[in-house]
Amino acid sequence: SSGINAEYGDQICGLSLHETGQLTKLLKERLGIGDIAMAAPAAAAAAPATAAEPEPEPVVEEKTSFDVKLLGINPSMKIKLIKAVKEALPELNLVAAKKLVEGAPCTVKEKVPKADAEALKAKLSKFGGDVSLE
After folding, report:
1. Residue 87: CA count within 13 A, CB half-sphere
2. Residue 31's pLDDT is what?
3. Of 42, 65, 80, 112, which residue is the least packed, with the fewest Cβ within 10 Å?
4. Across residues 90-110, what is the average pLDDT?
5. Buried b / exposed e across 48-62, counting CB within 10 Å, b at 16+?
6. Which residue in 132, 122, 127, 6 sits closest to 70, CA to CA?
């Protein structure tokens, strides 16, 4: 593969200034690379508009409640995790808590306030649960 790289390198080094500009433009388009400060003003003006669009989304979508999901478990800590789930969800009996843990991946609790969701995640993670907040 070093022969291929040297061949491409020789071809690129032999390009005129105009051809180099065309190659740069083509690579930027194909690889999705933004313009740098030395770029043409029209291209530079277009870049901030596209870069600014994704930024407001997280602010708009800031969540206040989360679903706590159990993605997986550490088998050696399964019994402790079942007990932790039963403590966190008093409406479940031991059999239901066991089924929930063994059914991972699954949703443990829905629409939980952020602080409570993080506390539940920490508790289940402490006992071998692979937990995510969505």
Report:
1. 11
2. 80
3. 42
4. 90
5. eeeeeeeeeeeeeee
6. 132
